[in-house]
Request: fold
Amino acid sequence: MTDNPPARRPGRPRREESAEIEHRLVETTMRMLVEHGPSLTMNTIITASGLSRKTVYAHYPNKPALFAAVVRQMLGYALQPLAVPPRARWQESLLSFVEQCLAEVCEPYATAMRRLLMLNSSFFEEARPQIEQVVVRRYLDPLAAYLQSLVDQGILPDQDVGFAAESLTSLILSESHRRFFQGEADDSVDAVQLNRHARRLTALFCGGITSPADL
Reply:
């Protein structure tokens, strides 16, 4: 006969429990930010999380501390490189890549994070290095590698693929900026409109890299 393990005494939660609570709070806050924006209150977060007020404030003493944790986690999700999908034609692969990028940068979570960064300048200064890292690792690096493979195969003429990748990424991000500052960020992203915009960007870009001007 084995003895049951002794019940843990009340007090500070174990490390695993603490990590689970923090994850639950951050996930809840991310979801609620999409609905409420930066005006989201701690009371609303506490109610939605199902945790006690004492537990929440033991982990995050105020809203800025919790919002900063949300920004860090949202950026952490985006560090995985986005692969260029294989298609029959390289132009179709680029189109699929551009569509995926546009869908990501225009999604509600991206808008919520942008609002947080604009709400508090310290958030942005703290997150700036990670934002730059996300752009490079998720978008620029895989795109530049794909373009270089096309050059190596003789499909594209020799050119500065790093500059080409930066140019296309800037065009993609500019659509997110446009939607945000023209008040369209809260509108649902229309798949047909997104595809149309992706086709325009891809056509413009492909025309430039297949016939680079000698200026």
About this structure: The two ends are 86 Å apart (CA to CA). Confidence is low (pLDDT under 50) at residues 1-9. The longest helix spans residues 121-152. Residues 78-210 form a domain with the Tetracycline Repressor; domain 2 fold (CATH 1.10.357.10).
